[in-house]
């Protein structure tokens, strides 16, 4: 196969001469074709999980469709791994605004620490979680009202035999709902419409039935208010309004009973607030040498997760996982390959530096280097292009001509500064160039508009050529991503304390192009 694919290039000039063969070779060496991935369904089955996902809160109520898809799939997997390992603490590295962290804590009742280097992200996570809690309260209240109304209707209309049968079924459901999250699922989805009625040997009168219903409703709401309090303590107490059972219309209650319920709720709230929050956003820069115990005072057996950890952070997450015995599992989805540091990219050797690539000894021994251009290509989304989401050719053309301008006019070939998303803010090519030069801290006064437009006209006819070149980069992107991901997997395979490690395709690549997770579990003795 290697001999056949080599015919895509001219032996002497090494130029591409057969585009079709080049595309076939790229497909052949893509991750989906190599057979090295473990299907997500197989992983969930091995963990004794449910591949259909948990019911309850739907993340699309709180985030866009892409993030919702990522959070829903990954959180289910994380919960299954945590249950398999018998742990309740999760550390979310590069947590950003806490989309995954907050969902793990609220939906699965996991104790999550979200660590991000940006204080603005951490503050955003606090604010976002505050809003989530308010929505959660309303969500619970709606579920309770539906529960009561359906209970009244079914109590009046259903035959006694059906009530007894339903009671038996729902008692089994309640006995199996050991976690707070599962209890919430039963409440929200009205799975226990008549649970709590006593079995009767003879038909009951409407008065007796209503009396039983009032008794059950009162006791059930007291229990529910305490359970919701536990969830609502995800943030400090002042983040939401005071919550108590007096907010519910439970019928006529004596003052003594109201006070008793109020005290019960306050005690539950005080007890929970004395413990660590279910979700705690923290600001800290994570490196391979980071001591998590310096950041998290109550660190216990836990797992590390990362949803689109940027550049070296994905590699450092794996290094911390292998080095710390208290971290029992890891699930990491990386991104931003262009920001990876490479050991063999520059000639200068820095013996003390920890590099993002390569990680495994095999590639280190070969002195393997990708280079920035290849890593930039690895970030492209072939699946999106394949369904018609074309490359932004005009913005790429603007950027390419800008590169020529700053090299020829200013003599700059390398800069630590970045142009960023200037194209979307620009009204024309002239505007784009001037905005970009300011970002690069270059004097644009020496460059008249006419000169800028001369460069534009000079290269305009090559825009189609640029588009074809970028399409070739897109085709090659999966092969470069394979190299980076297999390097991380091989690094885990080299460790002695790993029970299992693998690559798993988590997401729909059209919705989320960086869709592969590196997952590993340690030996139970470790």
UniProtKB/TrEMBL annotation:
Residues 66-343 form the Methyltransferase domain. Transmembrane segments: none annotated. This is MET25 protein.
